[in-house]
Design goal:
CATH class of the largest domain: Mainly Beta
Mean pLDDT: 77
Strand order of the largest sheet: 5-4-7-8-1-2-3-6
CATH architecture of the largest domain: Sandwich
Order of helices and strands: HHHHHEEEEEEEE
Structural class: alpha+beta
Largest sheet: 8 strands, antiparallel
Helix content: 40-55%
Oligomer: single chain
Distance between the termini: 113 Å
Radius of gyration: 41 Å
CATH topology of the largest domain: Immunoglobulin-like
Shape: rod-shaped
Strand content: 15-25%
């Protein structure tokens, strides 16, 4: 028996990690390029066979080569402590299950990410549609009244504002343009001036870079209040409970 024949039957077990006594074979592999090439081919065949349950079918020659190598092993465990052939099949099945589990985990993580993204998009669309419906209800309310809000002192390119208020729907939409910049830590505050009683805070706002601003359906207007006018003052950012003079803009219903 040649040296190659002596170790050839051990290569299949070694490729699958099932050889108990490895020292002699590993020493031989360090010196023998032919056996090292054979070992790499057997390892590749084993890997292809392990993927048959979750990936493309491996080449027939790979399965044939591996089965022939395994068939050369004695069916009865010898004094050298080799593992039985059914242990090799268990190793292959385990490798296949690991591949399947990794694939399913990756697919499940991607599915969860997609569900979260779609849920966030759906919530935003529902919120946007609810806001649009609420604005439409105010604009088309039978009792909706328009208030042109103008500056008290007229200047070039004066700021303008318009409030549309529905007592029946308890809704308010206010838009403004050409607003002047504010001092630090200050904000504009809109006031509802009722037919009877004190002014009611109707929303804080700051203009954008173009001097535009909007207030929509402030939550603190009591139901059923009849508005006589709307006014605007400059207040601390946290707001005020009563207007701070001077009134910078004001408009009555028309």
């Amino acid at each position: 028996m040649t040296v190659h024949q002596q170790f050839a039957e051990d290569l299949a077990l070694y490729a699958l990690g099932a050889l108990d006594e490895k020292t002699a074979l590993e020493t031989h592999l360090e010196e023998c390029a032919s056996c090292r090439r054979e070992l790499e081919q057997l390892r590749g065949d084993a890997a292809l066979l392990a993927l048959t349950t979750s990936g493309p079918k491996p080449p027939a020659r790979a399965k044939s080569r591996l089965m022939e190598a395994i068939a050369k092993e004695p069916r009865v465990q010898t004094e050298r402590g080799r593992a039985p052939w059914w242990g090799l099949l268990g190793w292959i099945a385990t490798a296949a299950l690991i591949v399947v589990a990794a694939t399913l985990w990756k697919q499940n993580a991607h599915l969860n990410s997609t569900v979260r993204a779609l849920s966030g998009q759906l919530e935003k669309e529902i919120s946007d549609s609810a806001d649009a419906r609420r604005i439409a209800e105010v604009l088309h309310a039978p009792d909706a009244a328009s208030y042109e809000i103008m500056p008290v002192s007229v200047k070039t390119m004066p700021p303008r504002g318009k409030a549309i208020y529905s007592r029946e729907r308890n809704g308010l939409v206010f838009v403004a343009s050409n607003l002047n910049p504010l001092p630090p830590e200050k904000a504009y505050e809109l006031w509802l001036i009722p037919i009877q009683g004190a002014p009611i805070p109707a929303g804080m706002f700051k203009p954008d870079a173009h001097g535009s601003a909007m207030v929509m359906n402030p939550p603190n207007i009591p139901p059923g209040v009849e508005a006589k006018a709307f006014a605007i003052t400059i207040e601390p950012e946290k707001g005020s409970t009563t207007p701070t003079p001077p009134i910078v803009m004001m408009g009555a219903g028309g």
